[in-house]
Amino acid sequence: MTSTPSSNGLRASRQRSVPWQALVDAAMLLLWGLMLLRFTVTGKLYLLLHPDYMWLAHLAMVLLLAMGVSRLVQVGLSYRQGTGQTIRSQEHTALLPRQFSVALLIAIAVFGLVYTPRPFASETAFQRGITDVLGQTRSRPQRFSLGGASEERTIVDWVRTLNVYPEPDAYAGQTAQVSGFVTHIPGWPDEFVMISRFVLTCCAADAYPVGLPVELPAGTARPAPDTWLEVKGKMQTSTLDGKRQLVIGDPTLTEIPEPRTPYEY
Amino acid sequence: MTQLNNGITLFFSLLVEAMPFLLLGVMFSSVLLLFVDEQKLLAVIPKNVVLAALAGSLIGFLFPVCECGNIPVARRLLTKGAPTAVAIGFLLAAPTVNPVVFWATWIAFRDQPEIVFLRVGFTLIVAVTIALIFSAQADVRPFLQDSLTRMMGEPEPATPVPAEAEISPLLKSGTFLMQSPGQVLQLDAPPAQVLAQVAVAAPPMVTRLRMMVDNMVLELRELGAVLVIGSAIAAFVQVAVPREVILGLGQGPVTSIVAMMALAWVVSICSTVDSFFALSFASTFTSGSLLAFLVFGPMIDLKNISLLLTVFKGRAILYLFVLAAQLVFLLALVMNLYTS
């Protein structure tokens, strides 16, 4: 398996050869561990995973780094002793040539160390079906209660509440204070935009968008799509797409930077 | 550009999600190699093929690994001479029939407990049936990758042979090494068996730990590379095929099942978390189609096809895929037609 000479007894002298393969393996493990470490430290792990599953990624990070370090220590020890120990292999590569696997894994880890994942935005929201305000949310509340102050509800809280009790008039006059990114829905009048968020249940692969319509005050320019806003207003009922819908009316819009955790859960 | 960014983000998301499970699976598989005597485990597995298939399907309860992690274990079981029924049963059922997944499904579908129990039941039915179908072929090796068959050695003869203890090892043909009186090592046995015989003289703990790490690195290198390729394909398909196309297919009793199975195949989500994903469709899709998603997804999806290729040849994966798809479809359809 290694590039070290096979210990077939023909070599009388113990030769000090650098076990390149073990070093490359160690580099691969360390790079993967570092990639996960970078995602963790920069907070980009929040764009990839639900917080509940982050401990798994952290566990993987620790394991990979530990394996990489132990591999380096092993190489160092055997090199110092001059034994040039070969790494025992139980099997040969089944599908891909070894060099290819290692090269691919190292390349991906390096890419992960330089590439910054980006949160999903309005284009993806369309693709994943934002248009239905009463979209599917993943939790099904066992009972319906309007506990807590209405301005503390997030977009997903509103949508979940609406799923349980869809009559928009029930919420008339309640204060809403939500933050999200702007999505322009085709076919809506110019004074309406959707304030949206993505909801994650496990990882980015199943992120789904939720949103609430916002009626802009007269004379306000439409904010560009993907602008992050904090919207504070009063709930009202408007007719959009021929449906009576809950809309945030008379809003004050404050532009905010993209949050560190752009998804809701 | 946005699509590309989304694709890459999805790709890393799948990798970061699957890597811990792959690590756990590889670690478990290495522990199995060096610290557990599978011969003993396999010895307690019943000889009856139906019971063996059932036993293989239930082994997952001992080893909670999801579909990324169970393939190295199934591979290891095969090299240790496990019957086909056991290995296939384990391969198909272990990702679903284990405490972690059961718990996750229970959390998600607390208000529909039938989903939780039927998920386990349907998985067992499908896994045992396919295991029996594969067992009908006495020698499964034509289905397996050559590198694996080299490790496995000769198939068990169909006719019962006298037990090992009755034959002195010296009455067998082959090349032997006398280790100590009464201890004989057959050198031309398949590598996995030589390894097993050598392992009898248990190496010191430090050596065993080192061998374990060596083996983990080896498997991680190989399976990690195919996981990367699989995740890349899954991310590409997710970004390239609009979800509306897949979702638009399904409202009826038949089309919803087909749509959910297609979705399970495309999304390639880990079995430990797929119940939360399925929950989002709970109010729009039929219960049968949700079950189809939960049973079919962990068995075969885009991500693990590349991993399956480390064990099986393409033809066998096609058989597995078709059989699993048909059985899951039938069970889900029965559920839709008779229990709605």
UniProtKB/TrEMBL annotation, chain A:
Keyword field: Membrane, Transmembrane, Transmembrane helix
Residue ranges of coiled coil: none
Domain DUF1980: start-end pairs: 27-130, 163-265
Membrane-crossing segments per the record: 20-41, 53-73, 94-115
NCBIfam families: TIGR03943 family putative permease subunit (TIGR03943)
Protein name: TIGR03943 family protein
Protein species of origin: Leptolyngbya subtilissima DQ-A4
Phylogenetic lineage: Bacteria, Bacillati, Cyanobacteriota, Cyanophyceae, Leptolyngbyales
UniProtKB/TrEMBL annotation, chain B:
Keywords from the UniProt entry: Cell membrane, Membrane, Transmembrane, Transmembrane helix
InterPro entries: DUF318, UPF0718
Principal location: membrane
Transmembrane segments annotated in the record for this chain: 12-36, 48-65, 85-109, 116-138, 223-241, 247-269, 276-296, 316-338
Membrane topology: Multi-pass membrane protein
Family: Belongs to the UPF0718 family.
Protein name: Permease
Species of the source: Leptolyngbya subtilissima DQ-A4
